[in-house]
Amino acid sequence: MSGRRVFHRNGASPEFNIALVGALGVGKSALTVKYITRRFIMEYDPDLEGTYTKHEDWDGHDVIVHVMDTCDKEDSDHSRYLKWADAFLIVYSITNRQTFEVARVYMENISNYLKGQERDCPVALVGNKIDLERYRQVNKSEGSELATEYDSIFYEITAAEEYELVEKVFHRVIQEAHHDKYGHILQPLFIADDRTTTWSPQQAMSQQSSQQQTQHLHPSQRRPKSPKGAPEKKDEKGQQKKTLNKFFKIFN
Predict the structure, then answer these.
(1) d(CA 123, CA 201)
(2) Which of 2, 97, 118, 232 maximizes the CB count within 10 A of its CB?
(3) Could you tell me which residues belong to the region Disordered (predicted)?
């Protein structure tokens, strides 16, 4: 820690709160642990909720990231993460369509909450468990379309395989959250299994070019400042959304 620099004049390291929300069993805990520890653990107590902290060495600067692995129940107080979070990861499993419909409810209600509070806050829709492709129930195009409706970030990943896939999602929302908080975007980081790896000049230039194409966020490429709600649709999903809202009692 003593060798790390800080970004801001007051000497404090920037801190970001990221909340993971979604139905039970979609892999929120697995994604949290993967990001914090780089390890994959298959079984968790679905009734446990916790907040974890990670110090990121961001190009020699210290960035503090707090991650809340939420567990929403029927009588949950959702304000515990709505007021707290600087960014949201709304997670569903590509192998379970019902979890995608739950994610749709979260997308709508978080978007409405942010608009009501006039807050700028990155929201990412995350389809988890792509390692189980043979059991897929939700097409990638469906996830992309839902994210587009709400001007949100979209990724499909898995906590079971490469750490870089998970890290990329967290780094993306940290970059956007930093812009919303401090007015400028963090530059993307090199991603490698071993952070102490020494790169040759040629390797570094190649890696930087690749990372800039996939991770660098120019202000003109960012989402609109205020997340918009999806247009009203009178279809067969309307009743299902009402049922889900009633079950979760979200934001009442």
Answers:
(1) 36
(2) 97
(3) 198-244
Beta bridge partners of 133: none
Q: How far apart are CA 191 and CA 35, in angstroms?
A: 13
Among left, alpha and beta (phi > 0; psi -120 to 50; other), residue 94 is: alpha
Residue with tokens 């079984």: 43
Q: The sheet that has 87-93: what strands, in order across it?
A: 50-58, 61-69, 15-22, 87-93, 123-128, 153-156
211 neighbors 37 (Cβ within 8 angstroms):
no
pTM of the model: 0.75
pLDDT tens by residue, 163-203: 999 999 999 999 999 988 887 667 666 443 333 233 333 33
Q: 87: which strand partners?
A: 18
pLDDT, one tens digit per residue, over 30-69 is: 999 999 999 998 877 777 889 999 999 988 889 999 999 9
In this predicted model, which residue has the larger pLDDT, 179 or 146?
146
Helix-then-strand count for the chain, H and E = 7, 6
Number of Cβ within 10 Å of residue 28's Cβ equals 28
Q: Report which secondary-structure segment, H or E, holds 103.
A: helix 97-117
